[in-house]
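WARN retry 2 of 3 for item q-0093 after timeout on previous attempt; input resubmitted unchanged.
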Amino acid sequence: MYVQKSGSRVLWYESFGFGLILLLSWLNKVVDLPHLLVGGDGHASKWRDSAIETVLILLIWAFVHSLTSRLVARLHFLEGMLRVCAWCRKVGHGERWMRLEEYFAEDFKIGTTHGVCPDCLKRLEDDTKQFYRSEAESAPQVLAAPTPQPESPTIPA
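OK item q-0093 returned
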């Protein structure tokens, strides 16, 4: 079964977004963005505040990144599972439900054959023996009818 590994793309987008936040944070300290965008008095920035802000952003990124990577791993695990109907044993593939043999033939290009595993064979033999025993016990006992004796020939007088 082919499972897309697109979750790593999500992690890259997430990392890019946090990198952009860091870039804007440092750009704000260097260029004083509020002063450039809306005017007003200049603002003296402290580099120590910028360093603390950067560390906080990196800690938040590490927390969010670890949670997202765990979610993506769980998603890949769940996508890799095969949906099987509990009643008829058909396999769910996209929007269709098909027999297991068809699924293997279509997705894996594998032919299938049938056999009986040792556990099922033993269970089948036990069930068969039990069936024959119950049939023998419930059947009426038929006594053998006496075999007819040949009559002795009578001589007419």
